Amino acid sequence: MADNEILQMHDLKPAPGAKKDRTRVGRGEGSKGKTAGRGFKGQTKRTNVRPGFEGGQLPLYMRLPKLRGFKNPFRTVFQVINIAKLAEIFPEGGEVTVADLVAKGAVRANQPVKVLGEGETSAKFTLKGVKASASAKAKIEAAGGSISED
User: Fold this and answer.
1) Could you tell me where the DSSP H helices lie in 1-150?
2) Are 142 and 125 spatial neighbours (Cβ–Cβ below 8 Å)?
3) Which residue from 53, 102, 120, 125 puts its CA 20 to 30 A from 142's CA?
4) For position 2, what pLDDT does the model report?
């Protein structure tokens, strides 16, 4: 084709090496014949073995337990503290926050806290940033205290 000719559709052809013949497996010694990519001897060479077959050993999908419920990955796990422990740490009562509880070593940081109703108290607690069970809320409010969850 000369430099001044216009490129025509019938002149187009693939780049050298772009088109490659399909491998015809098992069609003679010259083209992946003989073992045809299956290796030598054995069960998998002779026939197809279904997925999950382990040579007669009890397969993994049968060894694992069936129907055992599930674990909710979004469950909120609270750190619990009882009223008895609160009264022991803060005998005079007053305003108590999660930071105060962490500072005293009663709970770990960066996890939600819930107050449970085991034990008695006469001190007036003002709890901030914690949840409370119904019994704990009743006991704290009976002593003149309050709970806010924010």
Assistant:
1) 43-46, 60-63, 83-89, 98-103, 134-142
2) no
3) 102
4) 61
d(CA 33, CA 150): 74
Question: Residue 95 has what pLDDT?
Answer: 92
Say which residue the tokens 């772009």 belong to.
Answer: 18
Task: Show the domain range for 118.
Answer: 79-148
For residue 81, the cross-strand partners are 115
* CATH code of 122's domain: 3.100.10.10
Per-residue pLDDT in tens (0 to 9) along the chain, 150 residues:
566 788 899 999 999 999 998 889 889 988 888 888 888 888 888 888 898 999 899 999 999 989 888 899 999 999 999 999 999 999 888 999 999 999 999 999 999 999 999 998 888 999 999 999 999 999 999 999 999 887
The Cα 129–Cα 112 span in angstroms is 8
Cβ atoms of residues 85 and 125 within 8 Å: no
Query: Would 104 be classed as within a structural domain?
Result: yes
**Which SS3 state, helix, strand or coil, does residue 11 take?**
helix
CB 121 within 8 A of CB 85: no
Q: What are phi and psi of 102, to 5 degrees?
A: -65, -40
User: Residue 13: which region, alpha, beta or left (left: phi > 0; alpha: psi -120 to 50)?
Assistant: beta
